[in-house]
Amino acid sequence: MLNPSDLTLLSKKGISENQIIQQLNSFEKGFPFLEIRSAASPGNGITVVSDQQTNQFLGIWDQYLSGKVSILKFVPASGAASRMFKDLFEFIDSENQTPTKPAEILFFKEIEKFAFFNALNEKCLTNEAKSVSELVSAGAYKKVVENLLLAKGLNYGALPKGLLLFHSYADTKRTPMQEHLVEGALYAANATNEVNIHFTVSGEHRALFEAHLQESVGKFSNEFGKKFNVSFSEQKSSTDTIAADAQNQPFRENGQLVFRPGGHGALIENLNDLEADIIFVKNIDNVVPDAMKNPTIIYKKMIAGMLVSLQRTTFGYLREMEAGLLPENKLAEIAAFCENELNNKPGEGQQLTGEKFQKYLFEKLNRPMRVCGMVKNTGEPGGGPFLTVNNDGTVSTQILESSQIDLSKPEEKAKMMQATHFNPVDLVCAVKNYKGEKFDLLKHVDPKTGFISSKSKNGKELKALELPGLWNGAMSDWNTVFVEVPVSTFNPVKTVNDLLRSEHQ
Known about the structure:
Blueprint: H1 4-13, H2 17-29, E1 36-39, E2 41-42, E3 45-47, H3 51-65, E4 71-76, H4 86-93, H5 102-109, H6 117-128, H7 132-137, H8 141-149, E5 167-168, E6 173-174, H9 176-187, E7 194-201, H10 206-224, E8 227-234, E9 241-242, E10 252-253, E11 256-257, E12 259-260, H11 267-272, E13 278-282, H12 294-323, H13 328-340, H14 354-365, E14 369-376, E15 384-389, E16 395-400, H15 410-417, E17 421-422, E18 426-430, E19 451-457, E20 460-466, E21 479-484
Helix pairs in contact: 3-12, 4-8, 6-8, 9-10, 13-14
């Protein structure tokens, strides 16, 4: 199946022949659906904290930060912004010379409200010798869009979201990357006033990110009195997956194997390479201007404080178990914590005692831990919090995407539709054990949670293999706690017109 030039390519990418065989098997067999017990809801897998508890967790976090600890903010930022401008790209390609669709009409009606308006206006003056308003008056709408999206203008259609101007202030404009620096200063600075942030970026944009950091970091250091340690990494080519044709054979183009990026689940490798006690994970486009930041800051600190509190209890129990066999009443106490606080429930009919019971509890507690903010679902049910059955028969809280649920079964579909909350990618992770050693996160991935999607390349259909997603299958074997956070903490920018919402103005 593989020829010498294929093997050379695999060696260059750091992919073994065995991995290719496994991936082609996955195309052949597909991936199993996960067994769902129920959607998680308040009191059933989702914790709702009172104001008093919130203040308590804020205090725990502030106290934790005053110690000798390393905190990191991890921001996946590699995606291009092209999807943000889907409607505008379609407008350029259409026969229409004037806006006809609601999204196009809104874009031009409110165009002066975008943070990038001045930069766009300058490009239009340079390239077309007319301002945006003059071009619009002349009916040259497409010229405006071309100067926004194409290489001759601002090139926003090819840039990553992290480098676009999102927010306007009295004296400046900010990109999402800059907003993440500010966020880091407000909730993740350690006792020596250092802020550690890591961005995953694509190779083609890395130099642009580094240049943007250089022009930003001094200003924010002065403004917040913090030292920023910012690092970058790229998705490893060893996490690319082979594309397959309709017969589940390797897809080739001009005789060459075709590989595709393995999706955001590949980033578990990048996360695994980092050294820190606590790691915040948040998407690049979920940022707001300073006037709207307060809820984000409070609830980020709250879920971090909750994580520290749960971790302390967990570590205490692990040390007790390490010291020797505990009496049954003590094991029952640990089991209640495991079940009620960490949402790890034994499988049906699992009755363990003595040494076996302790070993089970030790293994369940001695894992990476994460607390995930969950917002009330205001739109369609999608990736969200569920109680699912694990490979060992136990039940735990998991974040699932709809592709992991067998929607052909009415009862499974009904469980998904009952989901009251949504995963906004608002995670705080603890990745070291009770001895201070880092977990190997790759050992806690469930490889059976990948999925297959249909794509096309140059007009030919192909099958693509997505690795287990970063916050679902890649963190399957973690202790996972869901806590309700207000919807005001979730303000993603999926289309350019989202920037017109009041939260971004």
